[in-house]
């Protein structure tokens, strides 16, 4: 059996679910642990159900067995004497590891942020069916519908800016902040091909964006907050014709879900500080220095 630990934000959980689908396609018995990864995370919860997704959920007994974590006295003594006999595999870097697709028994802990983990065409179709939502399924306010109409009627570009959780003391040493220079270079790159491009800014720091990106072709998207706001935002982003990514799995997925063959996708050349992330970049992406 293989158990995948669910953890992180929505984009991260989407990558973990994509690996789940690939391993299923390969004939493995696969389940998801959607509890352990959130025990010490006060900010995040499992969110895949918001897509209407269901999955095989691992039991506590199955998790304990794969991780050799029984807490009875005899098991604790045995571990002290002979070591833990665990099947836990922790992701070592952001580089694609083909061995993950070959394991038979494993408790997988990581983000698995590469489309190489779900390269099968049938799996890709299944993932699109799971994550692509019709607007009427997730948009329940007039603001969302107005923005969707604007996106569909112009040379629209989603511009993702993520700041608040990247600049706190806990995460600032891990995450890069995409600079104004990066965004201005990316904007120029798009405008070189599409001078009339309109930029729809999706962000967690709306005030900062309004101060730094002004003009008739910049719109800060501001939706009414509800349970499905994140999915509504991703749906709107994916409907844009082109994409300027932050170093975020959220905007990665929005760009991936866009099947426009002529799309421009621009990504920061450095994704994260503490690990290599070469394989997060797809063949369609153009990298620009951060």
UniProtKB/TrEMBL annotation:
GO CC annotations, alphabetized: membrane
Keyword ATP-binding found: no
CDD domains: Fut1_Fut2_like
GO biological process: carbohydrate metabolic process
Keywords: Glycosyltransferase, Transferase
Claim: Glycosyltransferase is one of the keywords in the record: yes
InterPro entries tied to this protein: Glyco_trans_11
MF terms (GO), sorted A to Z: galactoside 2-alpha-L-fucosyltransferase activity
Stored PANTHER family: GALACTOSIDE 2-L-FUCOSYLTRANSFERASE (PTHR11927), L-FUCOSYLTRANSFERASE (PTHR11927:SF9)
Name of the featured protein: Glycosyl transferase GT11 family
Lineage start: Bacteria, Bacillati, Bacillota, Clostridia, Lachnospirales
């Amino acid at each position: 059996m293989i158990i995948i630990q669910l953890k992180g934000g929505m984009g991260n959980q989407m990558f973990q679910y994509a690996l789940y689908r690939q391993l299923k396609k390969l004939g493995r018995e696969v389940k998801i642990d959607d509890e352990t990864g959130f025990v010490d995370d006060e900010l995040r919860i499992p969110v895949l159900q918001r897509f209407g997704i269901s999955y095989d959920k691992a039991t506590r007994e199955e998790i304990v067995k794969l991780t050799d974590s029984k807490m009875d006295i005899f098991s604790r003594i045995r571990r002290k004497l002979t070591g833990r006999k665990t099947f836990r595999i922790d992701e070592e870097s952001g580089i694609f590891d083909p061995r993950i697709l070959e394991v038979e028994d494993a408790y997988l802990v990581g983000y698995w942020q590469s489309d190489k983990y779900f390269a099968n065409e049938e799996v890709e179709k299944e993932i699109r069916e799971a994550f692509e939502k019709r607007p009427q399924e997730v948009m329940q306010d007039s603001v969302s519908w107005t923005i969707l109409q604007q996106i569909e009627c112009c040379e629209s570009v989603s511009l993702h800016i993520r700041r608040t959780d990247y600049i706190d003391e806990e995460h600032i040493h891990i995450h890069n902040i995409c600079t104004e220079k990066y965004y201005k270079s990316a904007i120029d790159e798009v405008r070189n091909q599409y001078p009339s491009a309109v930029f729809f800014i999706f962000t967690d720091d709306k005030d900062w964006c309004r101060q730094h990106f002004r003009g008739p072709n910049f719109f800060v998207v501001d939706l009414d907050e509800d349970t499905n706001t994140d999915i509504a935002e991703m749906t709107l982003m994916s409907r844009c014709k082109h994409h300027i990514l932050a170093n975020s799995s959220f905007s990665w997925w929005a760009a991936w879900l866009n099947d426009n063959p002529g799309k421009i996708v621009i990504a920061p050349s450095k994704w994260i500080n503490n690990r290599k992330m070469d394989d997060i970049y797809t063949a369609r992406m153009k990298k620009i220095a951060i």
